[in-house]
């Protein structure tokens, strides 16, 4: 289910928009709205996940004459677009959330997953969460959890992981979640393993470096008046986006405060509750 769909359309898609890029096309939730709102634009959807692209292709079949789908990391945005003859764009969206089908896809993104720990967005990549959890030093695991997950119990959790793997390898997401539950009590609605899983996913997919590179490329590609929108789901990403927009003299920040989902959207899609949308326009 697309997050902040109305807000994305109202702020990023105008009648003057001719080329629009969805840098994280996923299941094409935003794509449908974009293509319906502006029936003249060409839509370029990018994703690292081949399964996502296969789903998007089926969903967008009736718009095939106006859609181009590309597999790759959005940090390579310039090279990918230049490869299909596109040198400028009028709008771009980065939705940094994990889709429901990825959570259910057996790659270790979900706490209840009994498949082997993986967490790769692109299965062609080498590094997996399994390797980090079972091979990295205890202090390195603690650093990853603290820096990428802002997990204040990082050392305690890293020690529990290290102690457990002395007995046997940690093979599944469920096993890892149970280890964390044993040392970190649950308070409120958020699962105690949330920050650890976030940190591992970011490390496996090099997400923060990819975001920095993707935003740089997007700003360079935007034509004057073109807009960039980024939907984040945790404070690390949001701070990066806010600082990147504010520090660029080529951009006008259009969202003094991030746009957040309303009560109705959160009720219908609880996973949207932490979403924040920031938008800037190329001068």
Architecture overview:
This protein is α/β, with parallel strands linked by helices and 283 residues long. The chain has helices at 5-12, 29-37, 50-59, 77-82, 100-103, 129-135, 138-149, 154-167, 173-183, 194-205, 207-221, 235-247, 263-268, and strands at residues 19-22, 42-47, 67-71, 89-95, 222-232, 251-253, 276-282. The protein has two domains: 5-101 and 207-282, Rossmann fold (3-Layer(aba) Sandwich), CATH 3.40.50; 106-205, Orthogonal Bundle (DNA polymerase, domain 1). The chain has a seven-stranded mixed β-sheet with strand order 3-2-1-4-5-7-6, sandwiched between helices. Helix 1 crosses helix 2 (29-37), helix 7 crosses helix 8 (154-167) and helix 11 runs parallel beside helix 12. The mean pLDDT is 94.
User: Which overall shape is indicated by the principal axes computed on the Cα atoms?
Assistant: globular
Q: What is the strand content?
A: 15-25%
Number of strands: 7
Rg, Å, rounded: 19 Å
Averaged pLDDT, please? 94
Q: Which spans have pLDDT < 50 for at least 5 consecutive residues?
A: none
Structural class: alpha/beta
Query: What does the oligomeric state look like here?
Result: single chain
The name of the CATH architecture of the largest domain is: 3-Layer(aba) Sandwich
Question: How would you name the CATH homologous superfamily of the largest domain?
Answer: Vaccinia Virus protein VP39
- Number of self-contained structural domains: 2
**Euclidean distance between termini CA atoms:** 32 Å
Summarize the structure.
The chain is built from 13 helices and 7 strands.
Question: Layout of SSEs?
Answer:
Elements: H1 5-12, E1 19-22, H2 29-37, E2 42-47, H3 50-59, E3 67-71, H4 77-82, E4 89-95, H5 100-103, H6 129-135, H7 138-149, H8 154-167, H9 173-183, H10 194-205, H11 207-221, E5 222-232, H12 235-247, E6 251-253, H13 263-268, E7 276-282
Parallel strand pairs: 1-2, 1-4, 2-3, 4-5
Antiparallel strand pairs: 5-7, 6-7
Helix pairs in contact: 1-2, 7-8, 7-10, 8-9, 11-12
């Amino acid at each position: 289910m697309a997050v902040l769909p109305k807000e994305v359309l109202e702020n990023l898609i105008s009648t003057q928009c001719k080329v629009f890029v969805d840098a994280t096309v996923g299941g094409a939730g935003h794509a449908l709205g974009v293509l319906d709102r502006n029936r003249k634009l060409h839509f370029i959807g990018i994703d690292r996940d081949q399964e996502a692209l296969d789903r998007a292709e089926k969903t967008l079949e009736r718009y095939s004459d106006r859609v181009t789908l590309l597999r790759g990391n959005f940090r390579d945005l310039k090279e990918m677009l230049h490869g299909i003859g596109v040198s400028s764009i009028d709008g771009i969206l980065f939705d940094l959330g994990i889709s429901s089908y990825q959570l259910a896809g057996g790659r270790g993104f979900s706490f209840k997953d009994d498949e082997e720990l993986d967490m790769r967005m692109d299965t062609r990549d080498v590094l997996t969460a399994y390797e980090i959890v079972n091979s990295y030093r205890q202090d390195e695991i603690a650093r990853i959890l603290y820096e990428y997950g802002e997990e204040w119990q990082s050392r305690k959790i890293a020690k529990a992981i290290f102690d457990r793997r002395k007995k046997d390898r940690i093979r599944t997401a469920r096993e890892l979640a149970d280890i964390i539950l044993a040392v970190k009590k649950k308070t409120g609605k958020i699962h105690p393993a949330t920050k650890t899983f976030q940190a591992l996913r970011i490390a496996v997919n090099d997400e923060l470096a990819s975001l920095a590179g993707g935003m740089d490329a997007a700003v360079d590609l935007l034509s004057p008046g073109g807009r960039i929108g980024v939907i984040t789901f945790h404070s690390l990403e949001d701070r990066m986006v806010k600082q990147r927009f504010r520090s660029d003299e080529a951009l006008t920040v259009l969202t003094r405060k991030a746009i957040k989902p309303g009560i109705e959207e959160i009720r219908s899609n609880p996973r949207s509750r932490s979403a924040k949308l920031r938008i800037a326009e190329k001068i």
